[in-house]
From TrEMBL:
Gene source species: Desulfosarcina widdelii
PROSITE patterns the record matches: ACT, D_2_HYDROXYACID_DH_1, D_2_HYDROXYACID_DH_3
Keyword annotations: Amino-acid biosynthesis, NAD, Oxidoreductase, Serine biosynthesis
InterPro entries for the chain: ACT-like_dom_sf (IPR045865), ACT_dom (IPR002912), ASB_dom_sf (IPR029009), D-isomer_2_OHA_DH_cat_dom (IPR006139), D-isomer_DH_CS (IPR029753), D-isomer_DH_CS1 (IPR029752), D-isomer_DH_NAD-bd (IPR006140), NAD(P)-bd_dom_sf (IPR036291)
UniProt-recorded name of the protein: D-3-phosphoglycerate dehydrogenase
Amino acid sequence: MKVLVSDNLGEDGIRMFQEAAGIDVDVKTGLEPDALKEIIASYDALVIRSATKVTKDLLQAASKLKVVGRAGIGLDNVDIPEATQRGIVVMNTPTGNVITTAEHAIAMMLSLTRNIPTGTASLRQGRWEKKKLQGREIFNKTLGVIGFGKIGAIVADRARGLRMNVIIHDPFVTPEQIQKAGFESVDLDGLYERADYITVHVPKLKNTIGMLNKAAFEKMKPGVMIVNCARGGIVDESDLYEALESGRVAGAALDVFETEPPGKSPLVEHERVICTPHLGASTREAQTNVAVAVARQIIDFLTEGTVVNAVNMPSVTGEVLEKIGPYLTLADRMGCLQAQLVRGPIKEVVIEFCGDFKGIDLSPVSTAVLKGILTPVVKDDVNFVNAHVMAQQRGITVTETSSAESDYYVNQITVRAISTEMESVVSGTIFGKKDPRIVKIDKFRLEMIPEGHMALIQNIDKPGSIGEIGTTLGQHQINIGRMQVGQEEEGDRNIVFLTTDTPIPEDVVEKMRQLSLVKTVTPLEF
Ligand SMILES: NC(=O)c1ccc[n+]([C@@H]2O[C@H](COP(=O)([O-])OP(=O)(O)OC[C@H]3O[C@@H](n4cnc5c(N)ncnc54)[C@H](O)[C@@H]3O)[C@@H](O)[C@H]2O)c1
Ligand SMILES: O=C(O)CC[C@@H](O)C(=O)O
C-alpha cells in the first residue's frame, strides 16, 4: 500500500507510516496541482492538511485512491461529494487540536487587551510608549462566546479561570446543557449588548458567513474587542475595519482571514488589530496529536479496513454499503432537511422505519439521520462514528422504532424532530433502486428530490399564488429548475418546493415573504 503525504505532517505520524508493515510512504509537500495529479494514480492513501486541494479533477486521476486523511478538522479543501461518489473514504481528526486552538483564542484576547504585539513592535523601533499602550483588565469583564462546541467550551472554561463572566450563545445547544456546564445561555442580541470581549467558535456555514457584520457591530457595546480564531469570513472584514475606524470596536485579534494569506490589507495593518497566520492549531502538541491520529486511522484502514472519523461513510463492507448506500443518502438528506426546518435547539429525534427493509442494516441509517441533522450545525466535525455521542452531548435523545406496515410505499423512513419550540415530521423513501425522495412534510404529501438550492414555501391554495412566486424570482433572474407542489391532507394550504439554479438571496426571500398568498418561505441547501 502506498501513502502520499502532500502537506507538512508531524514527524511522529510520518514515523508511524515508515514503521507500519506493508506500507510505503512518500512525503512530497508543496506540489503544484498538475504535478500532484501526475503522480496520484499510484497511491492508495493521501494525507493532507489545508494546503493540498483535493478537487474533482485530482480525484478523477486518483484511480487507486481509497482514503484521504486530514490531519486537523477543516475539510473545506476536499470535494467530499466527488470522493463519496468514487467510494473514497474521507477522514479527519476532530479532537487533536481543540485545546491548542482554545488556548490561542485566550492568548489573542490577552495580547490584544494588553497591547503586547504593539508594545513589542514599538520597543523594537526604539520607543517607550507606556501611556499610549495602557491596557484593560479582563477580571470581572464579560466574555461572549459564540459557539459552544469543542473549542468554545474550552475557551469558556479557561476564561472562567481568569475570573471573567462568561456568557454563551449557541442556538443548537439547549440552555440546560450550557447551564449544566456552569454558564449563562443568552440570545445573540443579549450577548452583543453585554459582552466586553466577543470570541467566535462556530463553523463556517452559509448562515455564519458575515455573522459579525455592520448590523452586529452596531448592537455591540462601544469599545468591545473581537477575537476570531475560527474561520475567515465569519467576521466581515470590511465591516470590522469600519467599526474599528468609528471606534465602536476597540480592537480585534484575528487568526483567520477571508483569503489566506490576506496579503497587505488595511485591516491587517490597522493599529488596533493583532494577527497570526492561522496558527490556532500550530503547537507541537496539537500537530503531534493530529499527525499520530491520522496515521493510526489510515494504517488501520489500509491494513484492517477499520473506518474511524470518516465524514462520508460508516464502518461497513463494500457489499453492505452497496445495499444501504441509497438509504444513507436519504437519511442524511432527511436529517439535513430537519436541521433547516426546525426552529430552536432539537431535544428529541424519533426515527421510524416502516415496511420492508429486508437485508438492510438500519443502524448506520439512523446514524446518517443524526449526521444530517448535525452537519449544518457543526460541519466537518460530525461523522458516522461520533454522531450519536455528539447528539447525546447536545442533550438530544434518539429513539428508533420499526414496524412491518407502511401506508403508501414499500418502505418509508419518518424522522420526527422535536425542539424547544416545535415538532417537525418528515418522511422519505427510495424511488427505483437509489433515488431518494421526501414524500411527506408534516401534513403535506409530495415527491421532492432533496438536492441543490431549494426553497420551501407554504401558501394559500388559490389561483395566482404560484404565479406570483415565479414572477418574483423571474424579476431577480433566478431560474426555477424544478417545482413540486404538495397539498395539505385537509385544509386550504399548499406547500411548494422550488429548486433553483442559484441560491435565492436573502432580500429576494424577504420579498417572497411579503407576497399576499405566501405564508412562509424557508430557503434550503443540500
Ligand atoms: N484557527 C485554527 O487553527 C482552528 C483550529 C481548529 C478549529 N478551528 C475552527 O474553530 C471553529 C470551532 O471548532 P470546534 O471544533 O469547536 O467546532 P464544533 O463543531 O465542536 O463546535 C461548533 C459550535 O458552533 C455552534 N454553532 C453553529 N452555528 C451557530 C450559530 N449560527 N450561532 C452560534 N453557534 C453556532 C454549533 O452548535 C457547535 O456547538 C470552527 O470554525 C473550526 O473550523 C480553527
Ligand atoms: O492544519 C492547520 O494548521 C489548520 C488547522 C485548523 O484550521 C483545522 O481545521 O484543523
